[in-house]
């Protein structure tokens, strides 16, 4: 079976500086992969590159989604094809209510104009599942959202956009235990509804992995994956850190 995501020998430069230096990664449908590594190792660079952020130049290698080479695809085309990316620092898009934003994004993903009512119905259903206050949909995107609210909003977006692959960059040092729990439980709720969802989760915190057991853990150091293992690898990192690979 064709894997969901195949990253092959990926080289990426930012502003002419080489950051990723040959990353190989394969995520199958329904799998949870965790990407860990020290600050500056290139985790967010990989997430941005998967999104298709034009500031990140692919200088070698390829990204395939369900067997299709998406390396040169624009971010919106990737999103439509089922890639979802949530970021460390979600931007505040001034003046856009959550409902309106979701309507645009969902209509783009589904390839048809959804009515406000349709979007509101699915939104309320998922807000209930995720334990969110219904008034949240009338608020403006990320304006004055607490850390936990931003996370809930991200997970809400993920649930409604019904992606095949979700890339979640959670290396935010400001995330408290509650917010981590929101992410872990939210991802689990979405997987319960859609078992085929593949997840690539970037995190520093092994605590999140107690709620969300990964199938595969990768360690990224200086732009290369230096080790891949099972959930036990995350426990080892918690105890030993990254020193053994840094030499
Ligand atoms: N837009 C950019 N402009 C210049 N340099 C960048 C840019 N994005 C990333 N870099 C550089 O690439 C390297 C990797 O950064 P990246 O953000 O991918 O690390 P990270 O593994 O996500 O770190 P953290 O754990 O702190 O989130 C760093 O040296 C960083 O300064
Ligand atoms: Mg980062």
Detail the topology: elements first, then pairings.
Layout: E1 5-14, E2 17-27, E3 32-36, H1 43-51, E4 56-65, E5 68-69, H2 75-80, E6 83-86, H3 98-110, H4 116-129, H5 147-161, E7 165-169, H6 177-193, E8 198-202, H7 208-211, E9 216-221, E10 224-229, H8 231-240, H9 243-246
Residues 43-44, 88, 169, 171 line the site of magnesium ion.
Q: Could you characterize what this model shows?
A:
This protein has 247 residues and is of the alpha/beta class. The protein has one domain (5-91, 159-246): Rossmann fold (3-Layer(aba) Sandwich). 37% of the residues lie in helices and 26% in strands. The chain contains nine helices and ten strands. The strands form two sheets. It has a six-stranded mixed beta sheet with strand order 6-7-8-3-9-10, sandwiched between helices. α3 packs across α4 and α3 (98-110) packs parallel to α5. The longest helix has 17 residues, at 177-193. It is globular, with a radius of gyration of 18 Å. The model has no long low-confidence stretch (mean pLDDT 88). Bound molecules: adenosine-5'-triphosphate and magnesium ion (MG). Adenosine-5'-triphosphate (ATP) binds at residues 14-15, 19, 37, 39-45, 55, 171. Magnesium ion binds next to α1.
Keywords:
single chain; 247 residues; four-stranded antiparallel β-sheet; binds adenosine-5'-triphosphate; binds magnesium ion
């Amino acid at each position: 079976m064709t894997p969901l995501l195949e990253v092959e020998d990926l080289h990426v430069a930012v502003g002419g500086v080489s950051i990723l230096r040959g990353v190989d990664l394969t995520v199958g449908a329904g799998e949870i992969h965790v990407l860990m590594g020290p600050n500056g190792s290139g985790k967010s660079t990989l997430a941005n590159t998967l999104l298709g952020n034009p500031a990140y130049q692919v200088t070698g290698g390829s990204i395939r989604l369900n067997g299709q080479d998406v390396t040169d695809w624009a971010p919106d085309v990737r999103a439509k094809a089922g890639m979802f990316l949530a970021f460390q620092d979600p931007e505040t898009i001034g003046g856009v209510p959550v409902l309106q934003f979701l309507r645009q994004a969902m209509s783009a993903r589904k390839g048809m104009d959804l009515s406000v009512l349709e979007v509101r119905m699915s939104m309320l259903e998922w807000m209930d599942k995720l334990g969110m206050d219904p008034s949240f949909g009338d608020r403006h995107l990320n304006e004055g959202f607490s850390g936990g609210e931003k996370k809930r909003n991200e997970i809400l977006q993920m649930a409604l956009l019904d992606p095949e692959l979700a890339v979640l960059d959670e290396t935010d040092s400001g995330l408290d235990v509650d917010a981590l729990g929101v992410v872990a439980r939210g991802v689990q709720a979405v997987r319960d509804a859609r078992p085929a969802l593949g997840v690539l989760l970037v995190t520093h915190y092994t605590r999140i992995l107690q709620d969300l057991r990964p199938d595969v853990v990768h360690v990224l150091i200086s732009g290369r994956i230096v080790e891949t293992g099972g959930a036990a690898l995350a426990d080892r990192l918690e105890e030993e850190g990254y020193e053994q690979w840094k030499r």
